[in-house]
Amino acid sequence: MLYVIIGEDHAGSLDQRLASRPAHLERLLALQA
Asked: Please, what's the b/e burial string for 1-33 (b: 16 or more CB within 10 A of its CB; e: otherwise)?
């Protein structure tokens, strides 16, 4: 089964996304352990 997830950022969201990235990566690494 194929599927697609399409997302769009709203204007000005880059700063918030970049600020949350380190915590997101830390969580992904914890889930892999």
From this structure: eeeeeeeeeeeeeeeeeeeeeeeeeeeeeeeee
